[in-house]
Amino acid sequence: MDLVEFLVKTVTIVVVFGLTLLIAMYSTWAERKVAGFIQDRSGPNRAGWGGLLQPLADAGKMFFKEDFIPALANKWLFIAGPSLAMLTALLASAVIPFGSTFRIAGHEVALQGVESNIGILYVFGVVALGVYGIMVGGWASNNKFSLLGAIRAASQNISYEVAMGLSLIAILMMSSSLSLGEIVAQQHGMNWNIFYQPLGFIIFITCSFAECNRVPFDLPECETELVGGYHTEYGSMKLGFYLFAEYINMFISSAIISVLYFGGYNYPGMDFVYGQLVKAFGTETGHNIATLIGTAVFFGKALFFVFFYMWVRWTIPRFRYDQLMNLGWKKLIPLAIFNILITGAAVLFLKPVITSWLN
Amino acid sequence: MQLTNRSKQVSNKQMTLAERAYLPAIATGLAITIKHFFSKKVTIQYPEVKRYLGPVFRGRHILKRDAEGRERCTACGLCAVACPAEAISMVAAERVKGEEHLYREEKYAAVYEVNMLRCIFCGLCEEACPKQAVYLRHDEFVPVFTERDQVIWGKDLLVEDMNNRYTREAWTKEEARALDAKRARGEATNVVPRAIP
Q1: Ramachandran angles phi, psi of A342, nearest 5°
Q2: Residues in chain A whose beta carbon is closer than 8 A to a beta carbon of chain B?
Q3: Distance (Å, rounded) from C-alpha B43 to C-alpha A42?
Q4: In whole angstroms, how large is the CA radius of gyration of chain B?
Q5: Residue B77 annotated as part of some ligand binding site
Q6: Which chain B residues touch A if contact means CB-CB below 8 Å?
Q7: What interface predicted TM-score (ipTM) does this complex get?
Q8: For residue B108, which of A70, A174, B43, B117 sits 20 to 30 Å off, Cα-Cα?
Q9: What is the pLDDT of residues A17-53, one digit of tens each?
Q10: Cβ distance of A311 and B40 shorter than 8 Å
């Protein structure tokens, strides 16, 4: 890796990091705005233009609240909990391909933090680690309700991770690659996986709702049953970290959904735009501008799914815990296995037929 | 006994496959919520936009003056007696020579105080007043206060300012109801708010 490549990578990582934080920050604003709009209100609109300074005001408030650690809590783990949640939430953004490639001085650098050939495995590994943040936080607070909430959250996350992984296998069978960049590149030209894997998509998005602890699967935050769930004892910025991590998770999973099922940075008429841009600006600048447009499209898709998360939040009521577990183990996992079988059969028998017919 | 015509027969029939799959129901729900996303907002931006509270709304108190600027209150104490919360207290004084332009009756309230923490804005003082002196404004609330010494409102805050008189379209409930009825029939347009003479 030479200097130019290194610099572009560094800038990409910093920008992605900053953007993730910024989007998570404004997701809190958007959440309240969307909530307001859906309930025929106008949402926060006092701080700044249309309430745009509201996240800053909230953050300021959180910072100045008393930072309290219960006397019988395990102090180090109590602090480690929210940090872990935040860390694991942010780690996953490293392998997401935000665009195709940048051409700078003859170098072709992918617009992706780390070009890993096992990208999706990495994402799953990191997401699975997210459970630790919740579990450690709930255990360290030395509060029965927190522990119960944490156990619920952890078992929910683990249960839905199984179905999520299984629904993904079908995609991997089609793309025969674990690299996120490769999966996106294969969806070029409206070959979006959503058209081939509608069932897998439904399973995947349901599981991502559960993984992000979002409504209708926000059982860990059941204020009526368990006071407040795993973060009952948390206040100030530690609670802020937990809540913030949820919003980061939401954005990351939206990005993953658009990468896996909605073609990432691909959009219809992409080749035409690319040709026009190259003709107008030359191979280097034109290519870079096309990449930026693709990135904008990617963020559009990801943000749509962030909106979708909020939209669903105000539509579907919360599941009961046994319903949640039933859905995860008895419905989604068998469905995901069924989907794998169908996909396998299609890849084995249908694909050769269609390919020969098309040729 | 049937109370409404909206009652439905409860049934325990098995759900169909589409119903058990939830997805059609979820899609319907999403359609409903997104419709609300674009619908008109009902919020009233309060400090900037104030809603008309109606002619008989009971807000902050006012001690009326008459057309010549004389205080109407004769310190009879009927308002204080009528007050269920015992929020009103007053000290009466006798009008001396040369004060005829200040007080309409021979007796007047030297001190008239309303305890705003006790007041429940029931409007019984209004109804008890034989001199049409006490009113609860229909267009203004008691402003928010944070200090103890702002709780008791004296005559300095209560007595009407002649340069900015308190006017209403209707001064009694009967008048207000008659006006409402006229409006409903479409007869009343442009009712001019007036101060009671």
Answers
A1: -60, -50
A2: 34, 36-42, 202, 311-312, 314-316
A3: 7
A4: 26
A5: no
A6: 23, 26, 29-30, 32-34, 36-43, 45
A7: 0.82
A8: B117
A9: 888 889 888 998 999 999 999 999 888 888 888 888 9
A10: no
